[in-house]
């Protein structure tokens, strides 16, 4: 992979060193095992650097081709799949999703608590495909504490690894919606539902559609829903903080499910990938739908996806630990956070940046103003442990000199 001099694309080599210093500082202090950072401008990669270790116990170094669980950075890929089908004329964004997934057309809506428990009412309007793309469908993850509906989510094993996407949808449909569709922004299982929508509309298994229509054509050779046995020695270990400030390897199903074949392909958080692979996907978006002669989307579709769709009353939204650089000054598009007001956002960058992050301290962003693409991959949970992603963004932009 060719890496050009930073000065060729308007960046300072000396100032870019602050990214390395910042990442190495986390490693030296025992706060982070390692990470990979990558930057490209005008389609030219000018920074690509692994730091630290992929696994501490074995002293295995982080490499450029280390494989990461990208969790919610799967969502933009799923959203692109949906919009490819939209371009082909299979549906309108405002079509009721119940037309394709009848179970979701019959869901009740939580309307407070009464003497006999939850009050449930009918949907005033149907969940649309646009609602799912925007996280305004009334679904949730069960990660919040502000509604008894959240507790119901926690009681159901919605993403059981040996179940199917249809099983997942049936479990979801047995829960009430948190709000009426379109009434509130809530980070949710909506993108997992979109994965099933792709399956229904295309007639292909979701993983097969992604491989044949996106991952394969873009040359993303290390991106998959689980890591094959011959590549397991490249999979970075996930760590979490201990009370004494050190870190420890995490051992739980949320981390381990990527190590062996399974049947449930999560459009919301199921993929593993590398920095180089995700750069190819991100550069396709930056190029408005095309990379190396392969066009996945038309420019107008990418522009629609990366524009804010949230009405004023639903901003600012909040996703807690999941958001890349905070949500102040941001709107939300069809699969991406979009910076609307850089002063309110309060961090170096540009208005119009679109981005998303993953649960283990990963992030990507595309800056259409500066023609800049950035990737940070680490494996630290929760993402809120350190301000790693914000610091990476500042360190990247302070090195931009022309």
Describe the 3D structure.
The chain has an 8-stranded antiparallel sheet, sandwiched between helices. A two-stranded antiparallel sheet has the order 4-9. The chain contains 13 helices and 16 strands. Helices cover 29% and strands 18% of the residues. Helix 1 (13-28) runs antiparallel to helix 13 (388-397) and helix 6 crosses helix 7. The two termini are 24 Å apart. A hairpin with a 2-residue loop joins strand 5 (109-114) and strand 6.
Q: Tell me the fraction of residues in β-strands, as a range.
A: 15-25%
Quickly name the level 1 CATH class of the largest domain.
Answer: Alpha Beta
The major pleated sheet works out as:
8 strands, antiparallel
Q: Structural class of the secondary structure composition?
A: alpha+beta
Number of discrete domains: 2
Helicity range of the residues?
25-40%
CATH topology of the largest domain: Beta-lactamase
Q: Which term fits the overall shape? A: globular
Low-confidence stretches: 320-324
Helix and strand topology:
Layout: H1 13-28, E1 34-41, E2 44-55, E3 60-61, E4 68-69, H2 74-87, H3 102-105, E5 109-114, E6 117-121, H4 129-134, H5 148-155, H6 165-173, H7 190-202, H8 206-215, E7 239-241, E8 247-249, H9 253-256, E9 272-273, H10 275-286, E10 290-291, E11 294-295, H11 299-305, E12 330-332, E13 337-339, H12 342-345, E14 354-358, E15 362-367, E16 372-378, H13 388-397
Antiparallel strand pairs: 1-2, 1-16, 2-3, 4-9, 5-6, 7-8, 10-11, 12-13, 13-14, 14-15, 15-16
Helix pairs in contact: 1-13, 2-7, 2-8, 6-7
